[in-house]
Design brief:
two-stranded antiparallel ribbon, Inosine-uridine Nucleoside N-ribohydrolase, Chain A, 335 residues, binds calcium ion, 12 helices, ten-stranded mixed β-sheet
Length: 335
């Protein structure tokens, strides 16, 4: 299996990247970044920082689109993710932007790198998009044929329903670039959508992450715990939960561990729609192409899967690492 992560650099993106690094048998094939939670350059720095915990497995980080396809203004999400996208924790890490991992590029070059990955990896390729879908849409517009043989594309974005507590009245990833989301829904092969409302059934509690960090003395867990503090404060203030939703890690789980059966995945025909002021709704449309949607999730087992990712000893192992064997406590959920 070869994995590419397309990320907008927020806190749940960092968790998703850790999960991908932890469970991948070999190296990550690549990372691309997009505007969204933060700028694509900041997102690249954040991805490089996360990868520094897994030195034998890191991949090149390609800086991608810095604006939506139609060029309209966009808003970042620093109120939720912190100014740096990671709750301020990056200030404590002396990782230079020029680590040799980050590749500055024109957005077209990054789109072409994505397409080249899809073409080369073929059925073994897993592409996970955890931000606005601009890079994937650009790649599809430039070279749709390259994606014809890909194993799976999972995009976190859109929502099947309007969440009951939602101040911004939009699903962030889809609404940040509606045209890109529309192109992805219409063209991306082997597409599985991980909608917002499914993700919101999994609450990753502050105490849960603190327990893990206390129990396992691991730099990456200390880092994630600190990066999540601001994010969880924001969700506590907005929605009254003492934790957060691990949206992007769930997208990685669906892509890399389908056999774990964490999700109720159903085919359907959908287009983008609106419900009142809510932007980014996934609306049934008989005329649309068939895609797959994760309509529900086993929240307890999804958290077990994330715990396994955070505690498996994949850090600091040489290139290729050792075979993944699960956490040892219950291998039935092992990816
Ligand atoms: Ca994200």
């Amino acid at each position: 299996m070869r994995i590419w992560i397309d990320t907008d650099g927020g806190v749940d993106d960092a968790l998703a990247l850790v999960c991908a690094l932890a469970v991948s048998e070999g190296r990550l094939a690549g990372v691309s970044t997009v505007f969204g939670n933060v700028s694509p350059r900041r997102a690249a720095r954040n991805a490089a920082l996360v990868q520094a915990f897994y030195p034998g497995k890191s991949a090149a980080v390609h800086v991608g689109a810095d604006r939506p396809l139609t060029g309209h203004p966009w808003q970042d999400a620093h109120a939720i993710h912190g100014e740096d996208g990671l709750g301020g924790v990056t200030a404590d890490h002396a990782l230079a932007f020029e680590t040799g991992v980050v590749r500055e590029a024109h957005p077209d070059e990054t789109a072409d790198a994505l397409a080249a990955f899809a073409r080369e990896a073929g059925a073994a390729g897993r592409l996970v998009c955890t931000g606005p879908m601009t890079n994937l849409a650009r790649a599809l517009l430039r070279d749709a044929e390259a994606f014809a043989g890909i194993g799976r594309i999972v995009c976190m974005g859109t929502s099947l329903s309007v969440p009951d507590v939602r101040r911004d009245r939009a699903e962030f990833n889809a609404s940040s670039d509606l045209e890109a989301a529309r192109i992805v829904l219409e063209q991306a092969p082997k597409l599985l959508i991980m909608p917002l409302d499914t993700c919101r059934r999994v609450v990753m509690e502050r105490a849960w992450l603190a327990r893990l960090a206390d129990r396992h003395d691991r730099p990456v867990l200390t880092f994630l715990r600190r990066a999540h503090a601001h994010y969880m404060d924001a969700y506590q203030a907005m929605e009254g939960i003492d934790g957060c939703y691990p949206h992007d890690a769930l997208a990685v789980a669906a892509a890399l561990a389908p056999e774990a059966g964490l999700f109720a995945v159903e085919p359907g025909r959908y287009a983008l729609g609106e419900d009142g002021a809510f932007t980014g709704l996934l609306r049934p449309d008989p005329a649309a192409r068939r895609i797959e949607v994760a309509r529900d999730v086993d929240a307890a087992r999804a958290l077990d899967w994330i715990e396994t990712c955070l505690t498996v000893s994949a850090e600091l192992t040489p290139l290729g690492g050792r075979p993944y064997t699960g956490s040892g406590k219950d291998n039935s959920n092992a990816p």
